[in-house]
Amino acid sequence: MQILPSGHEPARAGLALAPFRGVRYARDRVSGLAEVTSPPYDVIAHDIEDQLFAADPHNVVRLILPRHAPGHGGSAYGDAARTLREWRQERILVPDADPALYVYEQALPGGTVVQRGLIGALRLSPPEAGVVRPHEDVAPGPVAGRLQLMEATQANLEPIFLLYDGGARGASARLSDEAATLWPPLAETVTGDRIRHRLWAIADPAALAAIADDLAPRDALIADGHHRYAAYRKLQARRQAAGDGAGPWDYGLALLVDASAYPPEVGAIHRVIPGLAPEAAAELAKSAFTVRKLPGGTGDLPAALAELAAESEHGPALLIAGGGDVRLLSEPDRVQVDAAMPPGRSPLWRSLAASVLQELLMARMWRVPWDAVRIVHNDVGAAVAAADETGGTAVICPPMPVQDVYALAAQGERVPRKSTSFGPKPRTGLVLRTFAEG
Q1: Largest CA distance in the chain
Q2: Does residue 233 share a domain with residue 360?
Q3: What local confidence, expressed as pLDDT, does residue 168 receive?
Q4: Residues 125, 251 share a domain
């Protein structure tokens, strides 16, 4: 595996994004890139998953969310590995000739660029090194699942998403802009959300060396992909424990974006609690919150979100919705909040709406275990619909201020699980990384 251009190591053991031989769809073998790519695995609702399976027999969802036929031997992860091998043998997926870093751009209709960054093989480092900073806790189950998939396929099938502060635009941003301005793209497609995705390759040794020097003194925040990054590190630990030495498992596929050039969007992640009736949820919450029914109910969700935003300026606030009603929960009792919080947490962490939801409302008042909770990214209407389908309650959360995320990560703290939804997220399937190609 080529880690960095020959003879050019970074000045310190800091941020490193290595070139690799990307594996990409052969355009003449599929119906179109929009039809074979997908959102990241953990934001695909079941109905969208069905649509992706139907869009093209080679859609990448068959690799990242494989479906194993009941009664057959093996496992879903083995199925994904077999599918990947077949697509490679049939040259549906083809490796590029040379190692490269890939410039990836997302643009709105009309050409306005909303995000541009570099996809490469990110050198792994522990959180205590302060080079790759997580901001969110992970759950063992999803980490184990992504690890099993990675071990079966011997591949990184979709990039995680990281942000760094480029300050005055350095070589990484400059060279990315040059590639996107001067060269024709390797790949281009427009997806159903009307976002245009384009990809270029930077393979010139001098350019790669300049990018390596630019990134070496920097650190990055994991915006999306905490479970995959944890799986990367678990695989690395397993291979090291087995005495395998250095190898492709010391790196993981990642998109690195300069947040000073392309500030991220931070959306909310909502909870759906099946079986907990909204009336019961509100009654239990009254002992610690001011609970107010909003006049428009679920028929006027924009007005409810405006109320939530206004109340969140003054302290932790949430909405609970279902059965046509929406209630605003605000002014949590400080004594009960303090009693619910884990020891050692900072005042900022304890003041987050997500922390109050997790530690006081869900754990103490509703006694809801995590494995009983459904997660819905950004879409309030979908959360309410899911609550109504299950006779449950939707908890609508405010988006977390990005400065709070950065501040907590910088001091080594992590926000409660599933508290932030950074975007725009990279499209899965534009470029894959297999261990055989580095």
Answers
A1: 67
A2: no
A3: 67
A4: yes
